[in-house]
Amino acid sequence: MAAQRRAIRFREWLLRGIALIFIVALLGLSAGVIWLLTPQVLLPEATAAMVSDQTVTVVPSEAEISFTPSVDTRNTALIVYPGAKVPVEGYAPLARSIAEHGFRVFLVPMPGNFALLAVERALAVQTAHADVAHWVIAGHSLGGVAAAQFAAQHPDSIHGLALWASFPNDDLSQRDLQVLSVWGALDSARDSMDSAQTRARLPADTRFVEIPGGNHEQFGYYTGQANDPVAEITRADQQAQIVAATVELLEAVEAAAGRRDLVRGTRLWLP
After folding, report:
1. pLDDT per residue over 34-63, tens digit each?
2. Do the Cβ atoms of 95 and 239 come closer than 8 Å?
């Protein structure tokens, strides 16, 4: 009888232990899901940049948020994919600043704020704006991975790629594609952006830019980036450097396209 009681108690302890492990695992899973579904907190500057003025018209919709300069003389435009957990409005100050240089910019909202869940969403933007002749796609962090994937899958419609604190999973080294890769020097993941493997996946003429004193979070106007060192420069300073590098890429894409169009036109007139 004593042995039987010990066996019963052992089974009870075992069941309680299994139940406890299950509860702990369930709580851990729930906490992880809540963390994934909780977006980063936007800063007031992000909301302020969403208002139209005399220089830039902002039009939000379900598929995109467009930033159109009042004097639109460019035929090259930029599509932007957000970083993971970041509402796309967090990049509105960047979009507005780039638009002030004459380029249309389209921020693309993502399901759950994860661009990898909807890599193909840039297609709808391109379809809706068929008057744009040349497209550049940009993405921050995991949004850059998704942007690079879209560029790899659509070689005929994407002419430039801007990796903002990001890297490609796809091999773009043999693509006729102008690429910018820019990151903050203090970014805890900077080694993955500047590794030999990353460089091997990009065209040989890719422009790499490291921002001294910059970090990961300051590519947008949001807060709460996990494991991100405090920047040694202001957010405005870092954003100005990102804008300058991205505008240079857009101008290079437009210039190269113009040269190709000129050569193509000349060939048509040759006997």
Report:
1. 334 577 999 999 999 999 999 999 999 999
2. no
